[in-house]
Amino acid sequence: MVEAVGDVDLLTAAGLLDVLQRELDQGVRVLVLDLDGVRFLAACGITTLLETDRAAQRSGADFRLVGGCRLVRRPLELLGITAGMPLHRDVASALAEPVRTRRRKPQPAAGSPSRWSGTWRPSPWC
Fold first, then answer.
1. In whole angstroms, what is the distance from residue 52 CA to residue 107 CA?
2. Lateral strand order in the sheet of 62-66
């Protein structure tokens, strides 16, 4: 479990992504990010959540979000992110949810051209 505190913005999003990626690299089956201590979630922070969810899918892990104040929850809800990454009310409920079985997504062959799949791509600026 990772607990985020303060602002997740241009100055802190990369550090949070590193911490979350290290957890996934350790082979966790369920990665919980507690947002209760976050006061502000910038676009780069939202990108971090999406990148972490993709990395979790590739590794076969579940990525779960907990709480967050209205200033954090509302943008996630408006963007439809909570449909794929539901927000749990507390860490206990996030951990109690059964583990979803995810198959690893196949990785494209090296040098294969990128194709638009209709999915959102993160900005290179974040």
1. 16
2. 2-8, 30-41, 62-66, 87-88
* Residue 103 half-sphere exposure toward CB, CA atoms < 13 A: 3
> Domains of the chain by range and CATH?
2-96 (3.30.750.24)
Write out pLDDT tens, residues 76-94. Answer: 999 999 998 889 999 999 9
Geometric angle at alpha carbon 62, from 18 and 103, rounded to 5°:
110
pLDDT digits (tens, 9 = 90+) for 34-65: 999 999 999 999 999 999 999 999 999 999 99
Q: In the 8-state DSSP scheme, what is residue 11? A: T
Q: Is the pTM of this model over 0.90?
A: no
- DSSP line for 76-114: HHHTTHHHHSPEESSHHHHHHSPPPP-PPPPPPPTTPPP
